[in-house]
């Protein structure tokens, strides 16, 4: 639920708004838009708000505590392994030389029915990302061409090489009475996928 970090002098990090639980003397924070105004509109459309919290330490051992503010688990991802894409509410923090941008779903169907919204945050560069899964989390490593279906709202994070689309659940009876809706999210490898056991639907976490 929480993560404790120690920052060196001049070291900083990005974190989602509302996640800064506490910090020591000599640590400052402000609201900034990663990438400037040109990326602010896309961030608003992703459901994460135009700005993030930028935390900077002016001491050699600045202590910062971050919290996801909702039940779940936190995991880290070394971006040297490749970029990742975060669905709404899954990004918690990023440390190092990290580029935080916005990417759009690659098909109209995925945008409208995939459950992750029209736009998602993409993290790349040289550093660490801390991401949140609502409830418990389940990791899947997909081989090249391997497909895995995810119930709408249960997708948290996936690596940048994974293809994201939708697939119909089946006929009318399954769609109406199956409890999974008309579409499920289809992930195609290669790459890493993190699922969350509690559904986190678009609009449940929005900062402006």
Give the SSE map:
Elements: E1 2-7, E2 12-15, E3 20-23, E4 27-32, H1 40-45, E5 52-57, E6 62-67, E7 72-78, E8 84-86, E9 91-104, H2 108-113, E10 119-134, E11 137-142, E12 147-150, E13 155-159, E14 163-168, H3 172-177, E15 183-188, E16 191-196
Antiparallel strand pairs: 1-6, 2-5, 2-9, 3-6, 4-5, 7-10, 8-10, 8-13, 9-10, 11-16, 12-15, 13-16, 14-15
Characterize this entry briefly:
The protein has 208 residues and is mainly beta.
Report on the structure:
The structure is a single chain. 9% of the residues lie in helices and 50% in strands. It has 3 helices and 16 strands. The longest helix is centred in the first third of the chain and has 6 residues, at 40-45. Residues 174-179 and 202-208 have low confidence and may be disordered.
């Amino acid at each position: 639920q929480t993560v404790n970090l120690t920052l060196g002098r001049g070291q900083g990090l990005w974190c989602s708004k509302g996640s800064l639980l506490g910090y020591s003397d000599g640590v400052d924070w402000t609201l900034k838009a990663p990438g400037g105004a040109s990326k602010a509109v896309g961030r608003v459309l992703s459901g994460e708000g135009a700005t993030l919290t930028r935390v900077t330490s002016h001491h050699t051992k600045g202590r910062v505590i971050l919290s996801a503010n909702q039940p779940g688990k936190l995991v880290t991802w070394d971006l040297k392994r490749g970029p990742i894409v975060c669905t709404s509410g899954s990004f918690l923090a990023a440390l190092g030389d990290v580029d935080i941008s916005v990417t759009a779903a690659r098909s109209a169907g995925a945008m409208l029915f995939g459950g992750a919204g029209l736009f998602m945050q993409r993290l790349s560069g040289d550093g660490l990302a801390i991401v949140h899964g609502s409830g418990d989390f389940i990791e899947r490593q997909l081989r090249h061409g391997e497909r895995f279906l995810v119930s709408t709202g249960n997708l948290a994070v996936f690596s940048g090489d994974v293809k994201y689309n939708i697939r119909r659940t089946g006929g009318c009876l399954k769609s109406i009475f199956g409890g999974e809706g008309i579409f499920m999210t289809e992930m195609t490898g290669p790459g890493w996928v993190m699922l969350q056991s509690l559904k986190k639907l678009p609009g449940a976490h929005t900062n402006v």
